[in-house]
Amino acid sequence: MIPSTSRTAGRALAVTALADLVCVLVFVTIGRSSHEEGITLTGLLTTGWPFWLGVAGGYAGVVAFRLAPASLPGAAMVLIKTLVIGMILRSVVQHDGTPFSFVMVATVFLALTLAGWRTAARFALLRRMRTASPNSPHALPQQTRTGSTTSSGKNTDPAGPHEASRPESLRS
């Protein structure tokens, strides 16, 4: 039997990877549309595969460096690997070239979307935790004047009083 923390971590990894793959799909779709190329399954796959392999490389880095997949450092790892691997494959295998303007547009768009959905998810979770009832598993622990948590559990995490109560996938 798989421990629940492993299942939760695996689920977080899968959800974040899917969200990142969707970001690349949106990038590819907008790019093909702006260049008046057809939005077909074949066209999307032909244009997108180098960058989707880059996302996979990014997640290899996330796992290797034990980064939280939904964290901003996780987004940075995925962004760098997606751009480097995607641009190399696009240039070497597809012979499509990588003009500076394309690299810049890809960098800005993917940085905004990969970090953007993570930031939005973090704010949504924090809002949910703040508005949850005190007995809810999503509620923030109550603090004492010394900064440790009340009898519901002590927090010795140096990252902060609420870090231990946050889901692993959103820890910084």
UniProtKB/TrEMBL annotation:
Signal peptide positions (record): none
Residues passing through the membrane, by range: 12-31, 51-68, 75-93, 99-120
Annotated segments matching region Disordered: 133-172
InterPro entries: DUF3054
Residue ranges of coiled coil: none
Bias kind Basic and acidic residues: ranges: 163-172
Keywords noted in UniProt: Membrane, Transmembrane, Transmembrane helix
Protein name in UniProt: DUF3054 domain-containing protein
Composition skew (Polar residues), residue ranges: 133-145
